[in-house]
């Protein structure tokens, strides 16, 4: 009888919510006395909804307007309300009941960054000025259409990059005078050590877009050392002496920096290379400035894939930036962990995710992230990344100012520590729960191993779903 009633209700909610084949667990709520319209608009963000386990909600994906109600407390909103932002940050509108205390802001969206528009391209940045917790790293998102050049330049900080789309040609010079040219595609990396001069150019058909990472949060893309800027601010008589040519030749050079500008489409890379002649000081660099990250064999986990590039493993030149590329399947979670030696600067490429940052002293705060968002997790703060969506993957870059990618896994720690020690911390005096917890821990190690950085949902769930009665 109970079962029959339950499935009848599910059919009703299916029709009501029109979610193809999927009824969110909270969708049964309106049958508990909430008006259907309120549940349709706000999902579980209603006065009567109770969730003692603080389940994740995909407010953006399910088109819900979060309201500040939690387990019977809270109230409506009467004042001005930015719906789009609330949907993107449902865990700020209704924080999990476990959140506590004050944390600095750990989220910024590139959508809130000023865009500098140039001929055939644009650029925008997330630095310590936009996001005060972005101390160790600054990020720049840049687009160059086909043939468009980011000028020959250099800077104080090292530069690491991930190609988000399209094709790009890079040039560089090393400290021994060796030169480097390479063509890169989506999923490739480059790294220029501090002061090394370089250029970037979008290739056919549609140019490129990439994420640049600098190993100092104070970096500004607007204050690099640029070829045309330097020459514009050098007496023409000096240019004449330097290049041993009449000063009149320089009369028409740009009066200020060009920065990003439309160039002509380059030919095949071998045709473009300056002919090498070591005796004349034109030589090939011995350094490998690039790395094909997405061509790397992934580490397969139960919930997705991980690819790591750092100077200790696959990308030796990248001495100051280590990174991991992660794919989280729907419903999967980047396990609870922390990084011992560097702040995490994460960039969300696809999907929607929930992250709670544990800052010690009882402090924890939850943030939600979507495409183009930047997240910070200061070193040693415990955290996880949950995929909010039931049908979309989450794709993320975890980036660190470090020569090595390092993390500590809570699961591995618990599974490796003497069981008596673990059990007495968590379940002292409750033998039944000690047995269940240690049993599952052991089973997990047996079936999967203790190291599973992205954890998928087990076939039969967790056996702890909130029942209708509890709701
Ligand atoms: C290039 O961009 C145009 C305009 O957005 C688009 O129609 C075309 O499919 C793109 N070509 C490729 C190869 O991506
Ligand atoms: C990881 O998964 C991919 C895609 O399913 C597969 O092609 C690859 O062989 C797997 N690698 C390992 C080491 O199992
Ligand atoms: C498709 C999928 O795996 N969905 C899962 C999303 O995560 C919740 C737990 O938070 C699971 O209950 C779903 O099965």
UniProtKB/TrEMBL annotation:
This is Uncharacterized protein.
């Amino acid at each position: 009888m109970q079962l029959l009633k339950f499935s009848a209700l599910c059919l009703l909610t299916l029709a009501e919510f029109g979610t193809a084949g999927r009824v969110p667990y909270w969708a049964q709520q309106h049958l508990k006395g909430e008006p259907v319209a309120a549940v349709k608009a706000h999902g579980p963000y209603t006065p009567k909804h109770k969730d003692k386990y603080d389940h994740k909600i995909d407010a953006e994906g399910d088109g819900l307007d979060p309201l500040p109600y939690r387990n019977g407390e809270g109230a409506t909103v009467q004042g001005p309300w930015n719906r789009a932002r609330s949907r993107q940050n449902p865990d700020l509108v209704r924080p999990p009941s476990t959140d506590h205390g004050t944390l600095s802001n750990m989220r910024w969206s590139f959508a809130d960054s000023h865009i500098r528009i140039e001929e055939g391209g644009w650029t925008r940045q997330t630095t310590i000025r936009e996001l005060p917790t972005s101390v160790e790293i600054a990020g720049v998102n840049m687009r160059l259409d086909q043939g468009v050049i980011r000028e020959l330049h250099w800077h104080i900080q090292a530069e690491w990059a991930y190609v988000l789309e399209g094709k790009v040609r890079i040039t560089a010079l090393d400290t021994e005078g060796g030169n480097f040219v390479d063509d890169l595609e989506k999923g490739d990396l480059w790294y220029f050590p501090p002061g090394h001069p370089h250029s970037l150019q979008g290739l056919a058909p549609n140019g490129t877009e990439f994420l640049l990472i600098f190993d100092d949060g104070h970096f500004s893309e607007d204050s690099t050392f640029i070829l045309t800027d330097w020459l514009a601010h050098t007496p023409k008589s000096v240019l004449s002496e330097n290049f041993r040519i009449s000063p009149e030749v320089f009369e028409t050079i740009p009066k200020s920096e060009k920065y990003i500008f439309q160039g002509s489409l380059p030919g095949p890379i071998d045709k473009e290379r300056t002919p090498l002649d070591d005796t004349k000081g034109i030589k090939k660099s011995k350094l490998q400035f690039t790395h094909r990250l997405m061509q790397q064999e992934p580490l397969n986990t139960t919930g997705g894939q991980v690819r790591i590039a750092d100077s200790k493993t696959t990308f030796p030149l990248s001495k100051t930036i280590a990174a991991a590329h992660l794919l989280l399947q729907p419903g999967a979670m980047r396990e609870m962990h922390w990084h011992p030696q560097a702040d995490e600067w994460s960039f969300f490429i696809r999907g929607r995710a929930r992250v709670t940052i544990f800052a010690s002293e009882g402090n924890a705060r939850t943030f939600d992230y979507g495409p183009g968002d930047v997240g910070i997790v200061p070193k040693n703060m415990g955290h996880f990344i949950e995929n909010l969506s039931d049908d979309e993957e989450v794709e993320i870059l975890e980036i660190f100012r470090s020569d090595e990618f390092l993390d500590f896994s809570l699961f591995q720690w618990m599974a490796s520590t003497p069981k008596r020690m673990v059990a007495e911390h968590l379940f002292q005096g409750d033998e039944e729960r000690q047995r269940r917890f240690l049993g599952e821990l052991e089973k997990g190690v047996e079936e999967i191993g203790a190291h599973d950085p992205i954890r998928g949902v087990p076939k039969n769930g967790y056996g702890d779903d909130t029942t209708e009665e509890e709701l």
